[in-house]
Amino acid sequence: MTESNPEQGKRGLNVRIDARRCIANGKCTTAAPGIYVLDEETGVAVLENEEIATVAQLFAGARACPTQAIIVEQYGRRVFPQILTPMFGEKPDEDEDAASS
Ligand code: SF4
């Protein structure tokens, strides 16, 4: 099966931003300008120009985020942050990689 989507060049990387975690401090927008931007309406960070973003830019924004709102996945598995700390008052996500034993 051949893939012809732009994600191919990024080795299956996918970025999602958890709006509940975003405190809109703009650290990611400084780390990767034009890739992470603050949405004018909601105030939370969104990913723009994903198709031209480099892997380094995607990770730079994610690393800059103090609240772990930017989650990088590769082929459906979270690769950053490795440990996703639950937010205050939040139960750990059930869709996390549960270390079921
Ligand atoms: S660095 Fe994190 S908390 Fe700050 S704007 Fe970006 S996603 Fe939101």
What does this structure look like?
It is a single chain. The chain is α+β, with helices and mostly antiparallel strands. The protein has a single domain (6-79), classed as Alpha-Beta Plaits (2-Layer Sandwich). The protein has helices spanning 27-31, 55-64, and strands spanning 13-17, 36-38, 45-47, 70-74, 77-80. The model is unreliable at 1-8 (pLDDT under 50). The structure holds iron/sulfur cluster. Iron/sulfur cluster is lined by residues 17, 22-28, 36, 45, 64-65, 67, 69-70.
C-alpha Rg (nearest Å): 14 Å
Q: How many domains, as an integer?
A: 1
Low-confidence stretches: 1-8
Structural class assignment: alpha+beta
Largest sheet: 3 strands, antiparallel
Strand percent estimate: 15-25%
Helix content: 10-25%
Distance between the termini: 34 Å
**SSE sequence, one letter per element:** EHEEHEE
Which descriptor suits the 3D outline? globular
For the secondary structure, the number of strands is 5
CATH fold-level assignment: Alpha-Beta Plaits
Oligomer, anyone?
single chain
- CATH hierarchy class name: Alpha Beta
Organism: uncultured Thermomicrobiales bacterium
Pfam families: Fer4_13 (PF13370)
Protein name: Ferredoxin
